[in-house]
């Protein structure tokens, strides 16, 4: 039986740990705020007080954390993963932190620990249905092992060598958030022009904004605008582009909070101003 440690009990971390418990894996969880692990313990998971203790004895360790600072603290901080991970364990980095953070991580793990970066496409409901896409970067053998051991979560798309999964996630999120913002401003223009929303969305559904339209009405997704703004900033740290920078500023201006990114559209429409 696979023993998996899941570190980070945000929305996605909790969902991943629960799904793995349901699949029959032995699951150990850790979170900086202990109360978030209670429902998982009831579902069969074990909890440990430090990242080092959670990682100890696990065949596979998953990190799913908010940002690079949290990742650094969990890996190299006091009682961090680096102090407890088994020498031949597989570490799967699922946070959205970008390829530079993956490179940093690779240089701080014991040399025998295998690393795969595998941020995910999909939200909490996709986890429960086993419908995630794991964007994996790494050597073929450990990526294949991730696909086998984490099959309950969804499918693995091998993007290339280490760091490419993290890079692909930035590209995917940039595309989604840029088109959502473009959709919002397009609908705001239609509002000012007095056009029927039904007629406008029917037209747009056959064009390049079709995916953004579907995402704007999704009811089961859960991607906070706060984290979306962080992800856009990660892309800007790689290459400073004016459209992406404008999207980042838009997200901040409408309130980078815990609301799902679908709320980008009505918030921008409500804030429209005319010359």
Structure, described:
Keywords: Oxidoreductase. InterPro entries: 6-PGluconate_DH-like_C_sf (IPR008927), 6PGD_dom2 (IPR013328), 6PGDH_NADP-bd (IPR006115), HIBADH-related (IPR015815), HIBADH-related_NP60_sf (IPR051265), NAD(P)-bd_dom_sf (IPR036291). Belongs to the HIBADH-related family. Pfam families: NAD_binding_2. With 275 residues, this protein is an alpha/beta fold. It has two domains: 3-160, NAD(P)-binding Rossmann-like Domain (Rossmann fold); 167-273, N-(1-d-carboxylethyl)-l-norvaline Dehydrogenase, domain 2 (Orthogonal Bundle). The chain has helices at 11-22, 38-42, 51-55, 68-76, 81-84, 99-106, 124-128, 140-149, 164-193, 197-204, 210-216, 225-238, 242-255, 264-270, and strands at 3-7, 26-30, 46-47, 60-63, 90-93, 114-117, 120-121, 132-137, 154-160. The strands form two sheets. It has a six-stranded parallel beta sheet. It has a three-stranded mixed beta sheet with strand order 7-8-9. α9 (164-193) packs across α11 and α12 (225-238) runs antiparallel to α13. The mean pLDDT is 96.
